[in-house]
Structures are given as C-alpha cells and as structure tokens.
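Re: export button greyed out
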Amino acid sequence: MKQEKIPYKIYLNESEMPKAWYNLRADMKKKPAPLLNPATHKPMTADELAGVFCEELIKQELDNTTPYFEIPKEIRDFYKMYRPSPLVRAYCLEEKLGTPAKIYYKFEGNNTSGSHKLNSAIAQAYYAKKQGLKGVTTETGAGQWGTALSMACSYFNLDCKVYMVKCSYEQKPFRREVMRTYGASVTPSPSTETEVGKKILAEHPGTTGSLGCAISEAVEKAVTSDGYRYVLGSVLNQVLLHQSVIGLETKAALDKYGIKPDMIIGCAGGGSNLGGLIAPFMGEKLRGEADYRIIAVEPASCPSLTRGVYAYDFCDTGMVCPLAKMYTLGSDFIPSANHAGGLRYHGMSSTLSELYNQGLIEATSVKQTDVFEAAEYFARVEGILPAPESSHAIRVAIDEALKCKEISEEKTIVFGLTGTGYFDMVAYEKFHDGEMSDYIPTDEELAIYRAKLPKID
Amino acid sequence: MKQEKIPYKIYLNESEMPKAWYNLRADMKKKPAPLLNPATHKPMTADELAGVFCEELIKQELDNTTPYFEIPKEIRDFYKMYRPSPLVRAYCLEEKLGTPAKIYYKFEGNNTSGSHKLNSAIAQAYYAKKQGLKGVTTETGAGQWGTALSMACSYFNLDCKVYMVKCSYEQKPFRREVMRTYGASVTPSPSTETEVGKKILAEHPGTTGSLGCAISEAVEKAVTSDGYRYVLGSVLNQVLLHQSVIGLETKAALDKYGIKPDMIIGCAGGGSNLGGLIAPFMGEKLRGEADYRIIAVEPASCPSLTRGVYAYDFCDTGMVCPLAKMYTLGSDFIPSANHAGGLRYHGMSSTLSELYNQGLIEATSVKQTDVFEAAEYFARVEGILPAPESSHAIRVAIDEALKCKEISEEKTIVFGLTGTGYFDMVAYEKFHDGEMSDYIPTDEELAIYRAKLPKID
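Workaround output, generated via the alternate export path:
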C-alpha cells in the first residue's frame, strides 16, 4: 500500500525549499479592497505609506498582480536555520481516534519564537536593514510576534522596540525575558512614551491595554523617530505573502508523495497563518485547477468572520492606521478573557475577508474549553503541547476526522499547527482547574460595536 | 568543495534511524564497577534490584557484554514522532566567530519535554507497561526528566508519580503544569507522603529539598506501592544505553557526508547526554579504530569529575539506593544556587567515571556567568535559546573554535545541544540583571563532604 511508505515526518531537502513567495492576490479575479487614507477615504498611495512602512514592503503590500516574489538569499539562509518545517503524518492521532481519515499537520513551532511568526519577521527585518534603517517598532499581544521580531532584528543588528499589551507584559514575564535575551526593548502598553498612550491612560486610568492600543503606540513611535519604521505580524498582504512559505512547503511535501488533501484547516486571528498555509492551494482553486475545502477556525469569543460584518474599519484603537475593508467586530471590540492571545483581533486580513466573501473559504468558531480539551488530547497522543491558537485548528481537525469515522470516509485532512504552548501554561492551568471561561458575546453587545463603524461611501 | 554540500541540518531518513541501542560497556576492557548492596557491600543481584526496577531494565543495567540491544518496535514508533533529531551545521556561529573550525551540534530540544530525556523515558515506560505494572515513580529537579516521563507514561497509559524538588516546584510552576497536562501527579519534595520525607522534614524543617532527597522518596514510594517501580533519568547504565540513540544518529549523519569529528563535547551532570552522545565514537576508540577528543563539561559549582574523588558513594540522600562507584563530591554535597538544575548531581555515571579514570575522556568546568554569556550569544546567532545545561557544552565549543582561530586550525567540533531553555527564563533574567552567582566551593568545603564518604573495602 502506497500510504505505508509515508514517514511520520516529511522533510523537504534544502534544495526543495521555496525560492519565491507566492502572491495569492495575483490569481484573484476580484482583488481585496485597498487600504484607505482615514482622512480622505482615498486609497493609500506608496508615498503616504512611506513614513510608516519600509519601501520594499510597501511594494509587496500594494502589488495585486505579481504572482511570485523572489526570496532574497539572506532570508533563505536564515530560513535554513529552522526550516523546512516538518509536515507530520498524525499516525498516532488517527489510530487513537479510530478514524479512516488521513491527518497531516504542518508544524511551525520548532523555533525559539515558538510559531510561524518568524517567517515574516525575518523578511520585514531584512528589508528594514536593506533600507538602512536603525530599527523597527511593533506591538505584541501573546508575545510570539514580538519574540520573532526580536530574533530577526538581533540577526540583522537592528534596534527593536516592542509595545506589549500590559496585561500580557505582566502575565508573561518569560516572553518578555526571551525578547530581552535577543536585545529588544519591551514597553508595557499603554505607556507614557507616546501621545496616544498618554491620551488612552488619561481616558482609561488603570487599563490593562489592548492590541489595538499597542498598535497605535508602535505606529506613533515609528513615525516620530528618525530611521524607524513600523512592522506588523499579521493582517497585512505582505505578511500573507511571506507566510506563503508555509503553504508552498506543505504542497511540495504532499506532492512528493502524491497526496491530495480534501480539506485544509487553520486558525484565524488576523490571518497570517491561514493565509500562508492555504496560499498555493487557493491559487489552484482560483485558477480552477483543483478544489479543496478550506476552513478558518476562530474563537467563539472573537468571531470576526462568523459574526462580524464586511466593512471598512480602523485597524487600531487610536485610529492612526489606514482603514481596511475586512470582516470586523468593530475596532473598539475587546473580547472577553481568551487565552489564545493571537486570535483576539477584532478584524481579519483583507485578502482572506474577500475570499470568504466570495465563498471560497468556510469559517467556523469554537469554544475555549473545547479547544483546550483538544489541545490536551493532542499533546498526549502526538507528543507536542500546542499553542492555544493552533489548538483551534486541532479541534476542528479532530471533529472532521470523527465525522469521517461516522460515515466511513477516507478523507485527507491537513491542518496548520502554528506553534507550541510552552509560554501558555497559565491558560492550561486555568483549564485544569476548571476556571476557564466560555463567554460568547451576545448579539446586543456586537451591535453596539458595529454601530460605531466608520461610514465609508 | 565537498563542505559546501553539507546542509544546515542533516536529517536521517526514517529507514536510517538506529534499530538497536549500543552498549558501550561491551567494548570496555575494564568494566565499570558494579552497584553494591548498601548493607552487605556485595554486588547487587538482579533479584535484589527487582523490587525497585523493572525486570527488563535490570537486565540492561547489569549486562556488560552484549554490544547491541534491539529497540522494540513500539519504542521506534514513538521515536519517529520526534526523531531523528537534526545534526545542525552551525554555519552562522562559525561565521560570527570567524573560525576555520567546522561546528556541528546534535539538537535534542525539538520535543515537548525540551530535552534528550524522552529517549530513555519512553524506553523505561515501555518496559514497565510490558511487565504489567500500574505505574512508575521518579524524581525531577529542573523538570525535564519529569516532563519526559509524564509524556511517556501518558502514551502507554501508565500512572506517573513525580517527586519534584520543592524549590523547583515553587519556582517552576509551568513545568509542573506541563506534567499535569500529561496526567502525572507532582508532589513537592520532601513531602509527608513517605517515611524518608517525614524524617528529612523533621530534621530540616523548612528545607527546600534536593535531588538526592527526592530520589529517596520516589524509591520508597515505588517499593511500598503494589505494581509500581522506580525509574531514573540519568546516572544508570540503562539510561546511557537508551541515550546511545543520540550518538548513533550523530555518527550516521556524519558518516553520510564523510565527516570525521576531531572532538566531541557534552555537558555532564549524571552523564545521560554525554554517555549517549559519545557511545559509538567511544566504541571506536575502545576498539582502536579511531581516536577522538571527548570533553565532559560540568559546572564549576558542582565539579564531580574535575574535583571529586573516584569512590563508592550513595546515589541519594536517604541512602536507600545501591552504592555506585563514581566520581563524587559526597552525597550530602549541595551545590550553591546554580540554574543548570540538571547538572546539580553530586556524582557521575559509573561508566563515564571509569572511562574518565582510564584517561579516555577529558573534563573541564565552567563558571555560570560564562555559560550564560555563551547561551545568549548562541541564541542570537543560531536562533535557538538553549537550556542552561546545554550551554555548558556551547561555552566550551566556542572556546575550542576560538582556539582554532588563533592557531588557524580547521578542526571539526561536534557538541550536544541537549535542550531548550524556555522554562529557564528566571535564570536568564538573573543573568540580564547581573544577579547571577559564580560561587565555587572551596577545597575546605569539599573536604567536609569527602570525609563523609562510606568506607568500602
């Protein structure tokens, strides 16, 4: 039987690693909506973005037609330190579930940032260095992105200034310490270092911060500091472009063994992982060459795709960023305590939003305790303790595999295991102690934030 | 140039993974000294050990002549979930150091236990299950071994009872929580669950525990509970046997590219990693087929090889275990605060001790701040945040590479990177804040403990 030859872990050779990123937008007939200038409501130009982002990254951000961008050699060399990541055949999980389904997961957690975030961090740091900048600023919630960027900046000897959501800063001192090991400076947000931070602190004394607020501070710091630009770990087109390395490797590994997946599952916060994982598969789908079910999984506590609206909205609380058209819950929406910090964003990548709107992606939401049940099950069976974010995909992959069992169907499931949960043990503890909340926002609550959306013609 | 073809990471194929463990002792002319019964001072028999250890493991422990033990299929299948581990060519480190040396490291940290400990844990759990036991007991200091054993027991559905040194239990709640995720019960030691624990608590109220004390409790629990045995993560011959998988993979990967190392460097606490890493190389050395420099690196705060004596000593504080002949500082010796918890053991594997005594291994000790300097340097250059234990080997590998630079010699260095430091950020924080101690015991202090060694004819 052919299947028996498939190893537990499929590793590509170095020579098989992608040499170019794939730009999904090039194959979209209807393109994602452009970023708008919040003052004029006109599409943002490269010039307008130049104060915030690096030049080369702006080109990537605005380019909806070029299908491939060559990965510079310096970045490919860095990738070789932790990539290719394994595509794992979940033999143990299949056996334990007693399912006829074939389950594969692309594991992005085998690097010190603990997630896929490093794929874009190193690219963004490279272009910043190439432009001769002194450093970059960013925000981090759960801490993976901040860690990844710290590593990337350390590699290229760039200054790295991270605004970390205050409650995370206090609850995750170890994440902070990892960033410090890589030489980054980490400031709890909101801080008194920025005007927007001071304003927020004056209006909400004692606030523990939010991602939207940290973004505002990081952007302000970048545009007011000489030789600095702002970088972001998700949502943007450029990030999805860099993250396409995940999907390209996955597809190459599957092709090597003649495997065609039936469905591809990924967690979705801002969309960096899902957008990267599905890229080449969605490309085939858009070109009519193949069909796949593609499933975005989001937390029921922050359901932007499943319960949001498709509209222009602010990307940040301080409203200093361009407006993006996306599925959004409103930029003021703060989800209830949810331990998957990476999925707490009110909006969603414009590209994924447009694909979802066209019906090319399905979306589903899952409750927090169901997610941790799947996480613990997976840890015990497959040996990897997953990040809470990744565990959203695990939950749905398990559910789909069980459906296959029920109807005796031998489907091939691929999901993205974006990272490890080693810095999330407080969440696991809450789960073990039965102290985890499954709060889901009511329709009335969501309506309040929806009413505050900016009015764009 | 041949060297250019060597990838950043050498992965063996599944079919190239070792199918048998290599028993170094079979090739030793002078064998390691046997374990002695603490009451009679006669060599321990299999029968005497049967109440403490699993039967199959006792056979492995006492067998000094069989060169290879087949790895059971169930264990090889588990290995496939996280092995083969990569042999990494440290291109970035070489470049940064500007050394002509070629540096390779065998990285054992890509699994949830975070270290090589899983290699033996799964073997010991397998034999316990095969014997029809209900569960196993053990101790853990830094927490890697306890985590590894929890994972292994969860896989085979065995009960796992871990005594964790109290200060670690309190300082490392996340390690504890990982074990809990895998269903293990974790008790801070000394506890009131055992007679020896109660005795120690009565004599030293408020003690924060030690590894030797936790061993005593775990052994007592095993021998007084029906269907339980005790398992240990280092020091013993059986552990070195299982860990030979590290060295066998390393040698196979090097052979694939025709690389012959000049020196092999590993950290040494009880000897599990070093003994495993060097096994096949030492075999060649013992059989006169090749020569290698082999360097054991220990902390200056706990220098059993470099400043201990070669003598019979107790393995634990409660003196319930057999006596082992080894380089030891005395079983009462408690090293000063040292963040490499895995290297705080007073003794050393009998096998490694005998090899060291025969002059086949070199040993060196390094100061804690020097170790963390190397750790941070390595993290920034190679992208992996190393465990404090592993960083002892990094320190010496860097020093040797710099010597090569000085004298323009193109040596090939292989070192063991046993694990990651994600649960050791408190130590990194102390280092960053300049609060790390470099205390080294005085000759007078060491003499006190040496005087207490048992007198064996």
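Chain A has two domains: 20-70+117-230, 84-114+243-450. The button fix ships in the next patch.
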